[in-house]
Amino acid sequence: MDKRTSQERSVRNKRDASSRVEEKSKVAAMQLQLLPPDVLRHILSRLSLKEVVRRHKYHIDKWIKFSTASRSKHIAFDFTMEGTSTGRESDKYVFPLRNLGGPNGSCVKSLELGYVRLKLPPSFCGIINLKKLALNKVSINQDDLHGLLLSCALLESLSIEFCSLTSLCIRQELSRLQCLRVRYCHLEMIELHAPNLAKFEFDEYQRQIVLAECLKLSEATFVSNLRLSVINIDDFELNYAFPKLPTAIPHVHKLFALLNFAQLVRFSNTQTSFINLRHLNMNLEIFNEPYDTSVFLVLVNILQSAPLLEELELHLGRYTGSFPSPRVTMAAQGPQHHHLNSVYISGFCDALGLAEVTLYMLENATVLERMVVDPVSYGDPYTDSIYSASKAGSRKGASYNISRNRVFAKEHLDREEFGHILTIL
Known about the structure:
Layout: H1 2-33, H2 37-45, H3 49-69, E1 74-78, E2 93-95, E3 110-114, E4 116-118, E5 132-136, H4 142-151, E6 157-161, E7 167-173, E8 179-183, E9 189-193, E10 199-202, E11 209-210, E12 219-223, H5 245-248, E13 254-260, H6 261-268, E14 279-285, H7 298-304, E15 311-316, E16 342-346, H8 352-364, E17 370-374, H9 402-413, E18 422-424
């Protein structure tokens, strides 16, 4: 009897001790939350992300339950820190998708997750009213991602960044998806059946893109991650999709591109035409200027590959000056273009090839109504934002060599025959 009593007392003491430790942990965490933000930030900065997640998992779980219980429409849990890589799965907090499944998450319309791990629970019935999903440095396998997307029947916007996936191929229909953004993901293929997809943003890390069945895809944006690289980008297989873009996104009306010279050449080697393209905006980074400015002449090929193009915007980055050329300035050779009616060139510089292709458009665009040549460069090589004429005045331009470039433009382009069309700022 005494022995049994002693064992019971021992078990009770251990339970009490465990309870006291848990209570102290809760109290300590509560006290930590009461600290001033700058002090709390300093403390957390001295811990690894894995340690922060381990120590505060209980409270993170409680916040997620609180978010769903309070019927939150927008939930964002972002554990990414500046400089963090995609990270190891074992270091990441396992986000409890089960809490958002079915009626529990019926109010959630937007979910943004950063540096977490996702595992689809058995019999997951989806986040039934979710319209926007953003995943940044999230660990999830192919099957779970497919299951998650297909279970969110109302999904309209999907953004995937820095996720370790090999492909994004979903052969079932995503009937409500309108916006797709895929960046910094080394994917063998993107293939979606999304009849209402209207906007698509991508980079050179996608080897193959199949969106031919997306009949409403009207706007596409390409942002190069390698545009400032000093290496020979032609050596990278990552750019092989360029020549196949017209067949990958054949229904696009507006195309925005942020790229460099090497990629411009690849882009001009398209195998077929952009049969529906009406508006083309290219932000060309010339941080490492070409030795031969005749590379600008590939713009003639690009115009030929878009026979119905109506508006062209060419925004050049800062250019330090061209090498002397023995050529006499004359319009580049090429066929007439019968739909181009508006051209806007910013960052116009003293590159002979640029002057020649500009003369080509002035002489061969049969319905050209307006051309603006601006020697001010508005490009910012350190952001992914794309400049357009509609944003005029929203970004301060670079004052480098403006006078010299303006004189060059007037010397080579300012002719009486173009007076009703050409404006040199």
